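Handout, page 2. Input:
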Amino acid sequence: MAEICTFMQVYHSLDDLPQFSGLVLTQGTFDGVHLGHVKVLESVVAEAKQSGLESMLLTFFPHPRLVLYPDDNPLRMLSSLDEKIQMVEACGIDHLTILPFTSEVAALSPLDFVRGVLVDKLNVTTMIVGYDHRFGKNREGSFPDLLQYGEMLNFRVKEIPAGEIEHIAISSTRIRKALLSGDLAQANQLLGKPYTLSGKVVHGRKLGRTLGFPTANISVEDPYKLIPATGVYAVRAHLPSGIYGGAMNVGYNPSIPGKGFSIEAHLFGFSADIYEIAIRFEMIAYLRPEYSFDNLEALKAQIAQDCEDAKMALAAV
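Output:
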């Protein structure tokens, strides 16, 4: 059965699909749903409305590289599956099909993929792709191939030119590198929105409480979610009760022996018990790298300064 969202239906198998009379469709991993992806999705939605058809994104889970190279793959995702669904829905897409990526899918030739999936299962009317779109086994399929298959199998193909979506060289790879190097400003610019981390609040050592700055310790449940560079960030926390500003530390806590890696945030004006509650953090600004302090008083003074810096950064956006 389809999973019903506010505006969009989500399918997790080709067997779940209804019979479509025609679709305007794009296809790809769309990790992070960055500005280039948004341009493609908006073009799909506009074409569908103009044609009186419905729009669809066909994507894959897990990411193909994680299936093809399971023993040698450091790839981490800009968006969890749930985050991707929310971001695609925000673009106005009618249908999202999440095709389980398996070795069988990976072995499909470009023509077999187009004929067996896009035509036979989805009844594509118009295919819209970015200028660098590749598909099929070993990514052998190219835009000229897609044009040829469209003529052969009776669907239209449109390509969004490089000049329309690469004026700032958008790529998921570039965004990942920016996040890992602490360049959150560039990552957010390329994404077109703040980078997000989502997770549940878990018990920590409660040291922040003794210092006067209680923190929510976050467990990011998606093992492939990219954790950005260590350091202190200004964040917005989305909870069921509302949105709160905060200062988040991502790192190894060198001033506290034995604590190890953690992600924790002090939320301004918030003190409720939220253990096991899911929180989504928008990462607004990178404030500083992680330091080691000689004593807890020095650490406490720096946390106070971090909170003031975070408030200033949040007030500026």
